[in-house]
Design brief:
Radius of gyration: 23 Å
Helix content: 25-40%
Structural class: alpha+beta
Order of helices and strands: HEEEEHEEEHEEE
Number of strands: 10
Low-confidence stretches: none
Oligomer: single chain
Mean pLDDT: 83
Distance between the termini: 72 Å
Number of helices: 3
Strand content: 25-35%
């Protein structure tokens, strides 16, 4: 009877150890593919808004909310107009900037995307000066569908970074706030 009880105790102990090891292995698998997106603004001769994956796994960009002065913007053209202000002499909003689609992109580790560029005009300097008025909220997920939000209310601001990354249960955004490009 004592031998049987010892065998059951040893079996239960082995089961508990196995379950703990499986949980640890699963966590290690998830950590081995953590993406980490970092939005930034570059002011080197032109204005550029970039998003870089500084993590160790691919990042699927689910939703993007871009704001200027706290107001959601729907398209790159409205972001450019809000940053540059009234039409400057000789500035053609249609040709002085270029943009890339952000939502739905998959960024591999170390990869970056230049989402908006304004160059070849003094308006680029205006956008650079005013870029602290631009905010961003990007929701992205790993291949295991673990999701995070990177939020920076002043992505072009100087001084201490206000950028934070937090886990996200959902990447849902109200339709009126979702960035379309």
């Amino acid at each position: 009877m004592l031998v049987a009880a010892a065998a059951v105790l040893i079996s239960l102990s082995a089961l508990v150890v196995s379950l703990v090891e499986v949980r640890i292995m699963r966590e290690q698998q998830h950590m081995s593919v953590w993406p980490r997106l970092a939005p930034s603004v570059s002011n080197a001769g032109s204005f550029a808004f970039r998003i870089r994956n500084q993590g160790i796994g691919p990042a699927q960009v689910e939703t993007v909310v871009l704001t200027v002065d706290g107001k959601p913007q729907a398209r790159w053209s409205t972001v450019a107009r809000a940053l540059i202000g009234p039409r400057e002499a000789g500035f053609d909003y249609g040709s002085a900037y270029s943009f890339s689609t952000v939502g739905g992109q998959v960024l591999l580790p170390g990869e970056s995307i230049t989402a908006l560029t304004i160059s070849g005009h003094p308006a680029a300097d205006s956008a650079s000066v005013r870029s602290a008025r631009m905010g961003v909220d990007i929701c992205y997920c790993s291949i295991y569908r673990d999701c995070w939000r990177v939020i920076d209310p002043h992505v072009g601001g100087s001084g201490a970074s206000t950028q934070r990354t937090e886990p996200a249960k959902s990447c849902e955004v109200p339709e009126g706030e979702r960035f379309q490009m």
